[in-house]
Design a protein that fits this description.
about 120 residues; mainly alpha; about 0% strand; elongated
Length: about 120
């Protein structure tokens, strides 16, 4: 017996995956993208131009790289942005590297200094 599986459709404005709404930071980035896209389309801009401005809005809504929770949210937003093409394949790895560096500094600061005995 053979089973056929259908590929999962790419996320779009109508069919958002649960992950986008499960993380408030991802939802905020996605909301920024949607509002910018709608605003630019309402101005009569082409879909490509509207998407360009929406992509910028998505990146501006990324959480700051301070604190472990913000860094985790930043990574989630970047990963989701890569999935929906709001973040391109050139910028994504740079953003993830920045998150890795930020995380390593935060992790190092969270360890209290050892007291001399």
């Amino acid at each position: 017996m053979t089973e056929t599986t259908q590929p999962t459709p790419a996320p779009n404005e109508v069919n958002e995956p649960i992950a986008a709404s499960a993380n408030p930071a991802v939802a905020r980035c996605l909301s920024a993208w949607k509002h910018a896209n709608q605003r630019e389309l309402a101005k009569g801009k082409s879909e490509g131009t509207a998407a360009h401005y929406a992509d910028q809005a998505y990146r501006r809504a990324l959480p700051p790289l301070s604190g472990q929770e913000n860094i985790r949210d930043f990574i989630a937003c970047v990963a989701y942005g890569l999935l929906i093409d709001a973040i391109n394949d050139t910028t994504g790895p740079k953003l993830l590297y920045a998150a890795q560096v930020a995380y390593s500094t935060v992790r190092g600061q969270s360890t209290p200094p050892k007291a001399d005995a």
